[in-house]
Amino acid sequence: WYPFYPQEVREQMETFTFPEIPVSRLLESSAKYYPHTTALVYEPENFIVNYLEVNSLCERFASGLQNRLGVKKGDKVAIYSRNYPEVLIAFYGLAMAGAVYVACNPLLIKAELEYQLNDSKTRIIVISDDLLPVLKEVVQERRTSLETVVVFERDKEMKPPLLGRATGTYAMRFLKYADVFSDEPPAKPEINPRSDLAGILYTSGTTSYPKGVMISHFNVVSSSIIYGTTYTGKFPVLDESGFLKCTNFEKDLSSEWEYPFRYGIDSVLAVPPWTHMMGFLGQLIYPVMSAMTIFPMPSFDMDSMLEMIRRWKISFAGGAPQMMAALLSRLDMDRQDISSIRAWTTGGNPTPVALGERFEKKIGGVISEAWTLTEATMSSTKNYANRSSSRKFGSVGIPLPYTEVKIADTETGRREMPPGEEGELIQKGPSVALGYWNRPEDTREAFKDGWLYTGDLGTMDEKGFFYITGRKKELIKYKGYNIAPRMLEEILYQHPAVLACAAVGKKDEAAGEIPVAFVSLKEGARVTAGELMEFVNRQVAPYKKLKEIRFIEKMPLFASGKLNRRALIQML
Predict the structure, then answer these.
(1) Model confidence over 129-145: pLDDT tens digits?
(2) Per the omega criterion (within 30 degrees of 0), is the bond before 161 cis?
(3) Alpha-carbon span 147 to 149, nearest angstrom
(4) Residues 318, 283: contact at Cβ < 8 Å?
(5) Which residues contact residue 72 at a Cβ distance below 8 angstroms, ignoring those fewer than 6 apart?
(6) Distance CA 445, CA 423 (A)
(7) Looking at 316-372, which runs of residues are DSSP E strands?
(8) SS3 content of the chain, % helix, strand, coil (to 5)
(9) DSSP letters of 183-210?
(10) Other beta carbons within 10 Å of 481
(11) Which residues make Cβ contacts (< 8 Å) with residue 237, sequence separation at least 6?
């Protein structure tokens, strides 16, 4: 795959060295080099601040954590909220204080939240007021190590005058968000970027419990840099004071651009939750390093999203293929202008070829499909986003710079499979996490000799492009044959009536499992289950034929937009 890196990227790789700096330095660097670039725009509160102002707010929050709440380096601080400005300020504030970010998905129910707080030994949690009922139950039962709950009131705290409009009063253990901030200078803890944790992000869990992935400062910084090369073609420079200086190629500042993103100019619509790795790295960390303007979106609303893209000329957005399919299915999509989007990043599930081709015609730039997982800090393989790159729909691209990926046999994991043959994808490189928090056995199973065993199945072609075919644990086992759900789904997506689909295995005494597909139809479309099965089954080998189709109004998704196959299996 090395020849498919753009020439300018290959040239820089010969001399580039990853900086060993804490995550907070990314914000501080943007405040230094792009101080007056707008950092955050949140319309409900008319909250518009530049990078210098955001950096100051984060420093004041860090000081309050240290001087008022006694937070020390290594302490666990959880955030349990959707994407609000307060979350960004809290995250970078706790990073400045040397605390460890514990990401709590806002969709967690009481038992799940309690599990994560106990597993991570979290002392302090920052939450939005709408989630207080869940958290109060956890606190009342006193089964966690929580000492303080910091509550912010949505759409009130950031209205001018800042931090002055919240009216709630809280009992012991509960503290108003505005009361955390301090004007004392924050202490600067010594951070070892390679060993100190920046965060613990929990997997969605294919086993009986979610696992906390230990992400170091070095993981986050290096992943943000190599992820960014796919959009700018340039590596940053570490200046004499230890700050990152990010610049563009001159051509990319003109209408004849090659790479889509411009430091200090472009904007991002932050839809995926910041508590999930896609939102965390791709739309909280990387945009700050790039001095982009961030538009937080607490909950996905398609009409609002389209309006924001049109009015603010948003240049960077993204989401799972299901979001792309939902947009294209709108009856008024021909009247929607999303041509300002210079790059749309997608992952979570593979993008069907037909869907990708249709969606790219609607935007003004390119779709960059990627594959990764939380344990790889969202940096594994990706299609470069420059206009002249070799991109392949259906492929998740090539390994990112300084990243090795190979296909290993599924039995021993030691034999590398030749091009075209299926196996498990394994990965090595600076973005591979340190392991699982409090799970030494799981860590030994997934992290071996520097390689991350991902559990994802795929192939590599002769040119080094990778293709995802499924999960080791998602294979449908029919009479001893392995059937990859992805293959059946690709065919279903070719049918003009299909909006979304997923193939799963249904237990069967005679066959072990039989392939069943769940299908959501486009608005106004009419087709029978028999017609769809015939459409698929005439294109596959006999043992791969669908035995049943079930129509479903809406696919069950995780908060990240990723398909929840377990929910479908439970429906069976």
Answers:
(1) 999 999 988 888 888 88
(2) yes
(3) 7
(4) yes
(5) 66, 98, 99, 189
(6) 17
(7) 316-318, 343-346, 366-371
(8) 30, 25, 45
(9) -SPPP-----TTTSEEEEEE---SSSS-
(10) 15
(11) 244, 245, 247
Burial class (CB in 10 A: 0-12, 13-18, 19+), 48: middle
Of the candidates 103, 82, 112, the one whose C-alpha atom is nearest the C-alpha of residue 198 is 103
Please check the confidence at residue 408 and state whether its pLDDT lies above 60.
Answer: yes
- Rounded Cα distance between 491 and 131, Å, is 41
> Is residue 338 helix, strand or coil?
strand
Which residue reads 């012991």 in tokens?
A: 172
Q: Residue 403 corresponds to which amino acid?
A: T
Phi/psi for 289 (5° steps) reads -60, -35
What end-to-end distance do the CA atoms of the chain give, in Å? 41
Which helix (H) or strand (E) segment holds residue 124: the answer is strand 124-128
Name the helix (H) or strand (E) containing 289. Answer: helix 286-289
Residues 434-473 have pLDDT tens digits of 999 999 999 999 999 999 999 999 999 999 999 988 777 7
58-88 pLDDT tens trace? 999 999 999 999 999 999 999 999 999 999 9
What is the CA angle 524-394-384, rounded to 5? 120
Q: Which of 251, 345, 413 is nearest to 561 (CA)?
A: 345
Place of tokens 């932050």: 270
> What letters, b where the CB count within 10 A reaches 16 and e where it falls short, cover 21-38?
bbbbbbbbbbbbbbeebb
User: Count of residues for the chain?
Assistant: 572
Task: Answer for the pair 153, 167: CB distance below 8 angstroms, yes or no.
Answer: yes
Q: What is the 3-state secondary structure (H, E, C) of 14-66?
A: CCCCCCCCCCHHHHHHHHHHCCCCEEEEEHHHCEEEEHHHHHHHHHHHHHHHH
